[in-house]
């Protein structure tokens, strides 16, 4: 369904910056109906790769094919038509804030010139499917993060795409909401046979839904394979690091720092932990549940400098007794 052959991408030098080689000799083949994950650290080239697949960027070398068509050789009009077959969801949802949930999902159908009756039928069906019929008249600002992403998913599905590109689609969500969104994506893949290409820096996301995966570093794919196989036999040191990220998950982590917060302070604490996560700190929720005493425990692990930074950011809550920490 998606085939990248010998892809290179160089962003040319600008007055204030040198040329950047974002991708080098990338070869990937993703079959129809597959859920494929691309994992890598920040700057590895994941977003550039995704943007090549929907034609927002063109490669400097090599070819990108989606459903048998060479994306980089299409005219603007052909590309617009082709893009209707490719849905996309984003980390920050990219919803239209002045439109209701219903109108957000209707938008791509209006652009495609569908009749009013068709639009009504389709939007009602999609909102039902993602569990948001009740919130049809709400505005995005009135929704939780998980609900916003459900709108994003419904909108991406409006034109019956064959491929759904997911750009860090769960990175702004808490673990529980992440699981429910991943579950929804899995169901959509199974029911509709849509091919999913997902980029992330979180191995647990890959582990939860992907069939196969690629690991990227400095613009290159350094390892590919079945998720199961890479989990049990990672060969590249970076793949091992990503696997380790998950293996340390809810298990007792002897070297980690435990942070316990009340569910009341959770939103603020979670914001701080998200920033730490983006800076390479491993954050795992112990047991993944709110305990009887209404306390949530996380285990954090990472470079000393980043750990100091996150503990410093949490200081205010520690002083208020809202957060407790111990090594
Ligand atoms: N439009 C652009 N112009 C110049 N350089 C760019 C452009 N887009 C990306 N790059 C560079 O290409 C490299 C790969 O970036 P890319 O955003 O694809 O990585 P990534 O793995 O998605 O990282 P992140 O998760 O931080 O978005 C980086 O060095 C980045 O600075």
From TrEMBL:
- Cite a GO CC annotation: plasma membrane
Question: Cross-referenced Gene3D superfamilies, in alphabetical order?
Answer: P-loop containing nucleotide triphosphate hydrolases (3.40.50.300)
Name the Gene Ontology biological process terms: amino acid transport
- Give start and end of each ABC transporter domain: 2-243
A single GO molecular-function term is: ATP hydrolysis activity
Q: Which SUPFAM superfamilies did the record assign?
A: P-loop containing nucleoside triphosphate hydrolases
| InterPro entries to which the protein is assigned, alphabetical | AAA+_ATPase, ABC_transporter-like_ATP-bd, ABC_transporter-like_CS, MetN_ABC, MetN_ABC_transporter-like, P-loop_NTPase
* Coiled-coil region: none
List, alphabetically, the CDD domains matched: ABC_MetN_methionine_transporter (cd03258)
Alphabetically list the UniProt keywords.
Amino-acid transport, ATP-binding, Cell membrane, Membrane, Nucleotide-binding, Translocase, Transport
Similarity comment: family membership: Belongs to the ABC transporter superfamily.
Q: What is this protein called?
A: D-methionine transport system ATP-binding protein
Species per Swiss-Prot/TrEMBL record: Melghirimyces thermohalophilus
């Amino acid at each position: 369904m998606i085939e990248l052959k010998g892809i290179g991408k160089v962003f040319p030098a600008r007055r204030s910056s040198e040329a950047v080689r974002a991708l080098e000799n990338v070869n990937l083949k993703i079959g129809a109906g597959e859920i494929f994950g691309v994992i890598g650290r920040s700057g590895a080239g994941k977003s550039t790769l995704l943007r090549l697949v929907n034609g927002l960027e063109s490669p400097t070398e090599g070819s990108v094919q989606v459903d048998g068509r060479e994306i980089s050789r299409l005219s603007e009009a052909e590309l617009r038509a082709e893009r209707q077959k490719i849905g996309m969801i984003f980390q920050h949802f990219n919803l239209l804030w002045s439109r209701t949930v219903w109108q957000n999902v209707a938008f791509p159908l209006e652009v495609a010139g569908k009749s009013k009756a068709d639009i009504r039928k389709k939007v009602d069906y999609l909102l039902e499917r993602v569990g948001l019929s009740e919130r049809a008249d709400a505005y995005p600002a009135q929704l939780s993060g998980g609900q916003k992403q459900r709108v994003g998913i419904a909108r991406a599905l409006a034109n019956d795409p064959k491929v759904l590109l997911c750009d860090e689609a769960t990175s702004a969500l808490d673990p529980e909401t992440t699981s429910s969104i991943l579950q929804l994506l899995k169901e959509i893949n199974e029911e509709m046979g849509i091919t999913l290409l997902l980029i992330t820096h979180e191995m647990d996301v890959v582990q939860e839904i992907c069939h196969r995966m690629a690991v990227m570093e400095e613009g290159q794919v350094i390892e590919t394979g079945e998720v199961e196989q890479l989990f049990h036999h990672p060969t590249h040191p970076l793949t091992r690091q990503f696997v380790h990220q998950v293996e340390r998950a809810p298990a007792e982590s002897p070297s980690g720092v435990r942070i316990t917060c009340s569910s009341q302070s959770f939103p603020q604490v979670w914001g701080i932990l998200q920033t730490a996560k983006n800076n390479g700190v491993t954050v795992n929720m112990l047991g993944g549940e709110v305990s009887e005493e209404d306390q949530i425990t996380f285990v954090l692990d990472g470079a000393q400098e980043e750990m100091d930074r996150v503990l410093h950011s949490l200081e205010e809550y520690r002083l208020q007794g809202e957060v407790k920490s111990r090594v």
